[in-house]
Specification:
Order of helices and strands: HEEHEH
Helix content: 25-40%
Radius of gyration: 15 Å
Shape: elongated
Number of strands: 3
Distance between the termini: 17 Å
Structural class: alpha+beta
Strand order of the largest sheet: 1-2-3
Length: 64
């Protein structure tokens, strides 16, 4: 059986921390920012954890 290939698109979007947590970028921060409050855009700039329901699939795609 050949080795599993890493999903390169996903690997560029998700970062694995030193403790093994999966971090992702938040959506809705790319454009149309004028109408969004500064508090909201600042909050969207922070990284978020991958949802618990998605972790298993994401780890598999990353080859972890």
């Amino acid at each position: 059986m050949p080795k599993m290939k890493t999903d390169r698109g996903l690997a560029k979007r998700i970062k694995v921390t030193g403790t093994g947590k999966l971090r992702r970028r938040r959506a809705f921060r790319s454009h149309l920012l004028e109408k969004k409050s500064s508090i909201r855009t600042r909050r969207l700039g922070r990284e978020a954890d991958v949802a618990p329901g998605d972790r298993r699939a994401v780890k598999r795609q990353l080859g972890l």
